[in-house]
């Protein structure tokens, strides 16, 4: 039996989340928390469905099946949706305006990995007096 629904309404990518495409997927940056999220290609294809304006879980699962996902892959898709929701990377959409993203496959389980430290702890300012100057 498949897991229950992650969400009942349509959701879209939050305005404080920006994406950068990389060779094997994408990186999301949450401008509020300053955390980076690494997405593989299938996860990036799913997130692009949220960018267009809104997507429901049902529409996402149907689109993933058209990309090659099977019933056995649906729990992985739902896990991704749950993580996006828990991390506040997606929010309620006014309406569903699903525009399928291009995905060339092959299909694999979508993955999302949050960087261990937020950006502000990784990047220092050149004007930080606690950092010694180079000689």
Structural commentary:
By secondary structure, this protein is α+β, with helices and mostly antiparallel strands. The protein has 4 helices and 6 strands. It has one domain. Strands 2-3-4-6 form a 4-stranded antiparallel β-sheet. Strands 1-5 form a two-stranded antiparallel ribbon. The radius of gyration is 17 Å and the shape is globular. The protein starts with 10 loop residues before the first strand and ends in a 13-residue tail after the last helix.
Helix-strand blueprint:
Blueprint lengths: L10 E3 L3 E6 L2 E6 L5 E5 H11 L5 H10 L7 H13 L3 E3 L19 E3 L4 H4 L13
Antiparallel strand pairs: 1-5, 2-3, 3-4, 4-6
Helix pairs in contact: 2-3
Q: Structural class of the helix and strand makeup?
A: alpha+beta
Strand content: 15-25%
Shape: globular
- Major β-sheet strand ordering: 2-3-4-6
CA-CA gap between termini: 64 Å
Q: What's the structural domain tally? A: 1
* Main β sheet profile: 4 strands, antiparallel
> Helical stretch count?
4
H and E order: EEEEHHHEEH
Rg, please?
A: 17 Å
Task: Estimate the helix proportion, in percent.
Answer: 25-40%
**Mean pLDDT across all amino acids:** 83
Low-confidence stretches are none
Number of beta strands: 6
Short description, anyone?
The chain is an alpha+beta fold. It has four helices and six strands.
Feature tags:
4 helices, alpha+beta, 135 residues, four-stranded antiparallel sheet, 6 strands, 19% strand
